[in-house]
Amino acid sequence: MKRLLSVFLTTFTLTLALPMAHAAERPPNFIVVFCDNLGYGDIEPFGSTLHRTPNLNRMAEEGRKFTHFNVTAGVCTPSRASLITGCYSQRVGMHTNPRDGLVLRPVSPYGLAPEEITIAEVLKAQGYATGMVGKWHLGDQPEFLPTRQGFDWFFGVPYSDDMTERVWKKDGSQWPPLPLMENETVIEAPCDRDGLTKRYTERAMEWIADHKDEPFFLYFPQAMPGSTTTPFSSDAFRGKSKNGPWGDSIEELDWSMGVMLDQLVELGIAENTFVIWTSDNGAPINQDPDNLSRGSNRPLHGRGYSTAEGAFRVPTIVWQPGTVPAGTTCDELASTMDLLPTFARLAGGSAPTDRIIDGKNIAPLLFGTPGATTPHEAYYYYQEDQLHAVRSGAWKLFLPITANASHPHFKKSETPTPLLFNVVEDIASEHNVAAEHPDVVARLMAIAEVAQEDLGDRGRPGKGQRPAGRIAGAPKAQVLAAAKPS
């Protein structure tokens, strides 16, 4: 470990002289904007001709696009757990649970274990102010709320804003009205979903202004475009796009990003603030590929909630004037779980060393260091507790899986064959080349066995897994603790 640390520090010093010199005066601020269900092809910098996103265009022109930036799950809870902990969700037990299944539901006894060390806790230990605005979805019991996981301040909803009786009907009949919370107090229930983007943006900007004179970390998981059939937007954006409610919500998200970038410049902290815009997973999309009213993952294959590229690869832009090279693109594989170890290093600290952290330092990729390549020798694509695919370099192999698998590439057959794609050259995953590359198939199958041993597979626990949190006794609903404003 000491030898590896010495090598890393030497490399880090030589390749990142500019960012570290900047950080020597004051460590950089970090802002993570994490959209909900935003597809790869939903914004103009990634090819959309349907949605107007001038502020994201500006962000890309002044910053750096990542075309192979991945999440670790095609759905909310496990994806968010990975960003927060720097680990595969299977590592921290947030990939599934006996009561809720794939995503946490309201009034659940489960949540992110308090013993896990979060990105907020790592930065807080370095003297950072830590705030969160938006959707948590890692447990709604007091023991699991953001304020117990390293955040000084929280404003938002504890789970998906669509988890209401109107949307979920039978299941939702047992749920409380959607609670809007500040810290651990419900301030409104049900909250106004139409106004969430505007309201979140206003509170986030207030928090940034209040902390402009100290290092800060803001986690900003937006509610939109969201999980429901009809996304929400404020009056100023409703009916204004060419793509109905989905487009309206995306254009309001773009407005929000413009407000943020402008404020950072006006406050004089833009050059010391690293901002990343990304999504928790791909868009759910419609069955008709030409109907984009549920988002677009074009030109990638597949929909959100799967293990296809359209679920795991998300539109990502990074921005820090004077440090992130303007108008550039990175085509190397990187991931949301890389943010914890990377931010820790840039802040002058380190990732936890008393446990496995799956994320890697990607600072050379963020700052365009010449010759920088992905630090990931292998990348895993799980659906709950089943490993569906592995990637190494340009190659992605879908494993032979049993008939109960849900992946869209497979029919329900007891003897499916492996599928191999070059996801760099064949961006739409149209050409299965497994027969032409048996050596690659064999190599990736061996990598899959390592993952299955470490993180488990189909009900068989992995040696490297840690349990999720679970409260003792019956969970209680978050209830209104103050009168709802008239």
Structure description:
By secondary structure, this protein is of the alpha/beta class. It folds into 2 domains: 20-366, Alkaline Phosphatase, subunit A (3-Layer(aba) Sandwich), CATH 3.40.720; 379-470, Arylsulfatase, C-terminal domain (2-Layer Sandwich). 26% of the residues lie in helices and 16% in strands. The chain has helices spanning 2-15, 17-25, 54-62, 76-85, 119-124, 165-168, 196-210, 244-266, 309-312, 339-346, 363-366, 438-455; strands at residues 29-35, 64-66, 69-70, 110-111, 129-135, 153-157, 180-182, 185-188, 216-220, 273-279, 316-319, 328-330, 334-335, 379-383, 386-392, 395-398, 419-422, 469-470. Strand 15 and strand 16 (395-398) form a beta hairpin. Helix 7 (196-210) runs parallel beside helix 8. The protein is globular, with a radius of gyration of 21 Å. The N and C termini lie far apart (59 Å). Residues 1-24, 405-415 and 482-486 have low confidence and may be disordered.
In a nutshell, what does this entry contain?
The protein is of the alpha/beta class.
CATH class of the largest domain: Alpha Beta
Strand order in space, largest sheet: 8-7-6-5-9-1-10-11-2-12
* Biggest sheet overview: 10 strands, mixed
Fraction in beta strands: 15-25%
**What is the assembly state of the chains in this entry?**
single chain
Uncertain ranges: 1-24, 405-415, 482-486
Tell me the total number of β-strands.
18
The proportion of residues forming helix, as a percent range, comes to 25-40%
Number of domains as seen in the coordinates: 2
Q: Quote the average pLDDT.
A: 91
CATH superfamily of the largest domain: Alkaline Phosphatase, subunit A
> According to CATH, what is the topology of the largest domain?
Alkaline Phosphatase, subunit A
